[in-house]
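WARN no homologs supplied; continuing
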Amino acid sequence: MFRHGIFVRSLLGLLVTGLCLVMFAQPVHAAKVDPYVIRYLKVTDSVELPLDTQGKTRAFSTADLSEGKRLFAQNCINCHVGGTTLPNPIVSLSLTSLQGATPPRDNINALVAYMREPFSYDGSEPIYWCRTVPESWMPQETIEKLAAFVVRAAQKAPAWGTNDIDQ
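OK structure emitted
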């Protein structure tokens, strides 16, 4: 009888511990996903984004894009509010503008290359109002998440890169 009581208490303890882990582990995961990514970028699981001009793609998760959004807010938003570009309002981060740049900047690798060494819109000369992002500051995997956020926002976010916030 005594052993049966210990067994039942142990089993009950394991059950309670398991329930606590499940209950408290889910909000931690959910906290990594920014609601903006789901609502405006239309990503609920992962999305394939263009990696290069040869048609290769790479999947980015909601957590990746949320991290990219956080990085954008931390490092880029002062000049690129809502995808506009304050130093040069004619050239924004809209999909049309990214596609029209020389070389086009509408894929992850091209946008990362631009952030590593910013050049003018026509590609003719270095620019100095956009910060150079060296590997020592932002490693490749991190900068790719930032680029993925910008590319996906340009593809899907309403009014991204425009002055029309009511869109």
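The first helix runs from residue 2 to 31.
OK
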